[in-house]
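I have been asked to look over a protein record a colleague put together. This is what I was given:
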Amino acid sequence: MLFLILSILCSVIVGIIFKISRKYNANPSQIISFNYVAAIALCYFTFSPDLNALDNNAPIEIYTAVGILLPIVFLFLALSIKFMGIAKTDAAQRLSLFIPILAAWLLFNEAFNTYKVIGVLVGFAALLFILRKPSDNQENKWIYPAIVLFGFGVVDILFKKIALYTVVPYTTSLFFVFLIAFAVSIIIVVYKLLTNKEKLETKNIPFGILVGIFNFCNILFYLKAHKAFAENPSTVFAGMNMGVIVLGTIVGAYFFKEKLSKINIFGLFLALIAIVFIFLSQLQ
């Protein structure tokens, strides 16, 4: 249970770091780039990945797709936190679990039981309530959490495909994906330096390193939690998603004074119910 709690904390702390970085006018794209420097270093020294294990049959095209998507979705995550807050962004990120569920149904003809159908329907209703703007808020950038939801959902599908290729250790695949993501993030930073006349600032380095550390620890503790609950992975699945939504809401409301209407709070409550039904569907 300790690993699960630590994974939840690390996930929410990533959002907190992005929120705090706004006060210093830090650059999200540069933070994301430095984040991968830390993640790559930690992955190398923790898992000792062997790139020689990558053979001709390795899903390089999937690695590349994930490596391209990750920094882009991460950038929208930062924008979503900026405009919509931690609570709504964390909820959108966690509700992204419905994308692979729908893909399994529509693309792979996976059978749906009653619990899963109810969970998906409640999840979509939750999303509508969560992203609804308060009446006094004229600037509702709902597109950012929507992209976060869809983006992380697609990334989750691709990571599941990577996990199916067991010849290469999952941690080696993860290291290779981080390398590609870092290269893509560098391209984004250079593009912005040249076109938007942005400056490379050292204040983005500590924020990036912190994001990388907690992002990596989130993955590490999540993997350890799955090993600890090897006979009941649904416990980790439900606990992680519910924990992040609850903690993200508390942090956003009490520490950053994020405004949540009664409709938004109802949506967050529905999100928890949806995750419970998805959890129950895994037990069938």
In short: The mean pLDDT is 89.
